[in-house]
Each structure stands twice: as C-alpha cells, then as structure tokens.
Amino acid sequence: MKTLFALTFATFALGLTPSTDVAKHGAIVAMGQGEARISRLGSAEYLLKIDRQNAGSQHLVVWMERIAQGHRVPVHLHQNNDEIVIVHEGAVAAYLQGHRAILNAGDLLFAPHGTLLGFENVSHKPATLFFVIDDPTFDGFLRDVSVPAGEKATPLTFSQRKMFASRHHIRYRPDIAIVK
Questions:
Q1: Are 69 and 139 in contact (CB under 8 A)?
Q2: How does pLDDT run across 136-167, given as a tens digit for each residue?
Q3: How many helices (H) does the chain have, and how many strands (E)?
C-alpha cells in the first residue's frame, strides 16, 4: 500500500490524476517504488513497477526481481509474448534457446515468443533483474504466484504451478539445466 501511495503521490506531484492521466502521459517510478510481492515459486521478491494496476499500462508489464544466491528462474517459454531481461546487480547464468552465458550488471537478454529462457544467480549476493513483457495480463500471473510483501509465502503445489502456467501460456522445461 505504501508503494501505491508513493506512485499516486508522484503522479499528483507531476500534476497528473491517477485514474486517467497516468495511462495517457506515463509514470516516473523510482528504484524502490512498486507493488512489493514475495514469490511462492522459490526464493525471490519483486516489485511490480508498471502494469494495468500500477501506472495503467495497457500493453506492458515491468517488474524488478531480486533472486537469492543460488536460486533460479527455471527454463520456460512464453508462447505468445516477447520478453526483455536486464541485469541490474549481480551476475546470473542465462539459458537462451540452447545457448548459455553469464550476464552481469548492465547486460540485456531478449527472448522472442516461443524462445526458451532461464536464469540462475551465480553471484555471492542477491541478483536484481528487470523484466519487461508485452502482455498486459502477465501481472495476473505475477500476482497468482506471489503474496503481498509481509505475508507468509507458502510454496505452490505442482498442480497450482501447472494451472497458473497454463492460464498464462507459459511452458516450463525443468529437464533443461541452466548451469552445466
């Protein structure tokens, strides 16, 4: 709630009204601002920065995810959507359609729809990544697989994971290793 207040305050400071002008004129979202969530998929926390609810985007979802040391975003693909990932802090091993590389702060990965991708934090500290996806409903997936910050994040069951992935056109490939 504090984050939504900060975004709302920022829009008023710019002379915009949250309900209409933010979607028309954009938003400025500071590094620590966003809707704080805790993943139920593993050891990650994230901030939803731009989506339908936060800033009124009708085309994109942008979030910042902090991945704990040694944890990963499993290999997966988005059947209908492109994704951009930017490493902000730390280093991650990346898998992109059969290729593996280490991405460091400032590096960017682009995955067109139907492309397999995944990440594993190989830093000695949490890695922070920014994600951009051209699916305005993807915020629904992010909320389905998380809880608001401060709440207990109980792990999802296999059937829950499968249901949410299917609903949002994601296919997981747990048989593919990110780091060999």
A1: no
A2: 899 999 999 999 999 999 999 989 989 999 99
A3: 4, 12
